[in-house]
Queue: 4 jobs
Job 1
Amino acid sequence: TGFEEDSVHLSFYPTVEETAIDRDLEYRMQMARLISSVVLRIRNKININVRQPLRRLIVPANSDAERLAIDSVKGIILDEVNVKEIEYVDDDSGIVQKSAKPNYPVLGRRLGKRMKAVAKSVEQLTTKEITELEAKGHWVVDSGDGDPITLKQDEVTITRHGLEGWSVESEGGLTVALDTEPDEELIREGIAREIINRVQNMRKEADYELTDRIDIFLTGDDEVRQSVEHMKDYVKNETLAETVSFEIAGKHDFIKEWEIGDKSCTIAIQRNTNL
């Protein structure tokens, strides 16, 4: 109060109040970011647009505390990655098959003639054994001459193979499995979301106000029309549409043709002035 520094270089800098840091919140948000990042990377890798809902993802949770932490941010995760549900397994052996092989450039110099026997032992490890050994951070394997060899983590390469119909990715020590096969219900919702996206873009191009109510006119492939019909209330709520018609007749403010994957449609919009 009343004190002014002559220069910013002479100013008093605030110190960190360690007791004000919510470590639990930091951990929960870190988990949310990590899981979301992995799922979005899977989507990008297999070319499934984030507007296409997917049924579920599976995350290993090694303790009740970890599961509760993820549950507390589940809504954030599911909304970010557009997945319906999270399921848990005790460890990632429940969602992947693992195989191991030696890191030959590293091990070859150390083991010499024992390399062949060690390689055979490593390649015979089961998924369960690899999971157990990962937890320890080192591997003890048969060297072929009765003298066990302890291998460090960087001396073994572990490969994860996703279960059929699932894609698996790892980051920061966390493995996530994503169910990548949408059913008919999810496909319909995905198409409806795409239509909503196109209508929102058209509203901007037509320079509508955010609160303007509209009427939508749509023609196109049967699957597009059926999806919009099935999700009509959702489409109307998201686009502020009073009506959705499956023919283009009468006047409209703006009309545009769109491609949605391998499907095509034409959308027209009209500002509703009857309200």
Note: Residues 23-46 form the longest helix (24 residues).
Job 2
Amino acid sequence: MPRPRPSPDRCAEMVKEYIRGKGLKEVGDMFSVAPLTVRREVIAANHVIRPKHIVLNNVWIGRNQSKENSPTWKGGNPTCQECGVVKSHARKDTKCWSCELKARKTKPRLPVDQLRTDESKLWRKRREFRDWRKAVFGRDGYKCVACHTNTRDLHPHHLDGFANYSEKRFDVSN
């Protein structure tokens, strides 16, 4: 059985509350009716229904709430500190993408003598190196000697350098 329709006086009060800025659900809760009933009465009184995302508070009715006038505005998109361009994204760092890429390209690289040589790359592929590596890990219980953790990124190191002391390359005590 359908609910009885509210009296014309109550319908006028519901429309007034909606026009003052309350939402359909709020007005329905105030008058103990369904929000669709409030909607039907507002349309019958020749008023336009606001979209759901627009909520009017009595304090802000008629005020422009864009940018600085909004209570939640945080200053808009940040600008790059190097080139001054307004960034289209709100990242915490201070550079835009183009300045960040330029900085990455100009970073100093390691000198050639500090990089691995072709000879050491070839040695590390050989069976002797793999056997030495297993022997070192087995001796240390597959744990890092410095921090005593067991991780997947274990790397064996020589006490005397691999390139400088070729006779000690596969000595397990080195």
Note: The helical segments are 8-20, 24-31, 35-44, 97-105, 118-124, 127-139.
Job 3
Amino acid sequence: CWPGDTPARLREVTLNCHDTAMIFARTLIPDPAMAKDGWLAELGTKPLGDVLFQSGGEREGSFELCRLGPGDELFQAAARQRSDLSVNLMRDEAVTTWARRSWVRLHGERLLICECFLPGLI
């Protein structure tokens, strides 16, 4: 659920370079935003950023950054997007990657966007 018990949908996509996943993105979209902006449900695999800011979305505040390791659920979800990231890599505590999150307001509703930068990109 979204803060305040508002139901939200989880959208997950990967951004690829030459058929290799480089960014794993998760977006929490509250149901009222889906109702106001029906196109959110019709994005498919299209990157949200391609249309979000053209549709009136505005970033709130700055990006929050963090380092992720194999013990983090977001790291594990991102690593599953790449067949070349072996199980051993996911268990290696020395392996880390970076992620960022930001809030975007779209027609009065807040969306939470998290992006995990996979090995090879940074």
Note: The radius of gyration is 15 Å.
Job 4
Amino acid sequence: MIDLREVIKTEFTILGAGIAGLMVADELITRNKSVALIDVNQFGEGASFAPRVLINPATGRRAKIAWKAKECINATNEVFERVRNQSNVDFYVKNGVLRPALMKKMGKDFKKAPDKYDWPSADWIQWHEKEDLEYKYPYLSNTFGGLYISEGYTINSQLFLKAFHQQLAKNGLKSFFNQSCSIDADVDGNHKINLKNGNCIQTRHIIFAVGAGISGFDEWTYLPLERVKGQTLTVEFEKKLPLTHSISSMGYFAFDPKVPNQLVIGSTYEHHFDHEKPDEEGKETLLKKLDKTLPGYTESISKMNQWSGVRITTQDHQPVIGTHYSQKHLHIITGLGSKGMIYSKYLSKELCDHLIDQKPISPEVNVNRFL
């Protein structure tokens, strides 16, 4: 971490050290650009640092295929393999995701999903009737059938992001943590970012990847963004769980076979909240999800730990990338909601293709769709 009181010149400065900010930094550094990273908190305190998360390309209650699922997963997997190989940190497993249908309507929609959407191949998603599902996975009961998603990943996001940042730092990323800042524009279009510690960064481009902190920047108040609070519950059990895959039903249940007596249960998806901390109501909500999906397992819990974070979502549930409509050196990546891990690398590539090579941004995610 840089702690010298000096003027630092860099072409790009990223605000926000979560998954989106690090992925953008990675993409820029790969293209031999100079990059600085600023975060108002200590590294590892934002919503990206949920204890464990899933990549699940079959989204929502209809198991709809995620936007550009194949391209996004391929891009993310390349980063995973590179970071794991270079750091020797084992932070993810491709163990698939089970999607049991716990309501009749959901079961009907799930059954249609393999044929309704344009999956890259048939083995990405498989439908199981009730009898077959519950026979193959006897810990599930009271279902209306379900899906198995082979392209499902379980990630220890905290381990990943720490290892990722360490590699980026070795490759030239300049990082400043616990730093509030003010931004001044020069007459030639450059910007001066004045840090709390007295440092000044002179930069051409500023990329806002601040997640829920975007509400603190007047430049982006025109965007229809919503803050959503999510709580998770890390649960340890007295014995090993009989699971192989993670589960996504009425919430998600992140399971890593390397920690066979533990689940991370999420999320509460609170659109209305008066504080950002974990609370008793959130814990009870998550325990009910566990009891609904894995009946009887609440009785063998030995330890629990809560976490909470606030994410940004949009009206159309699609992320947002691009350039400010009137300030051509201000850019944004936001609105990833709970899909930051699957989308961030591909979106970073699109954003950098636009900034460096003037390529158009996909209209589904372009910030200009809100003008």
Note: The two ends are 38 Å apart (CA to CA).
